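Deliverable D5.2: sample structural annotation.
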Amino acid sequence: MKTSLFKLTAAALFLALLAPAYAAKADRKKPTAENTANAEILKKFDTNANGKIDGDEAAALRKAFADGKDQTLKALDKDGDAKLSDEEIAAVAAAPVKVKKKKR
């Protein structure tokens, strides 16, 4: 009886410890609106396809932001100073979203 109770308690404790890990893993799979928007911005402005916005790409992104036509770019201005800092531009590539590959 004691052995069965011990095994049942150990199994319940083991499952209770695994639940948060699986929940966190499931959350990573779901792209957020911000990650999706950043992926689109990266796709549009990362002309050399190195996974980050640098050099001339940053200048082009700042110019497009200043034009004010693309509402998606307004979300990049986290501090609300109406300018894109280097940190705000670097955040575009900070949380990449995996794109599903097409099955052949």
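Annotation notes: Helices lie at 2-29, 33-45, 56-67, 71-74, 86-90. DSSP finds five helices and no strands in the chain.
The annotation will be released with the project's public dataset once the embargo ends.
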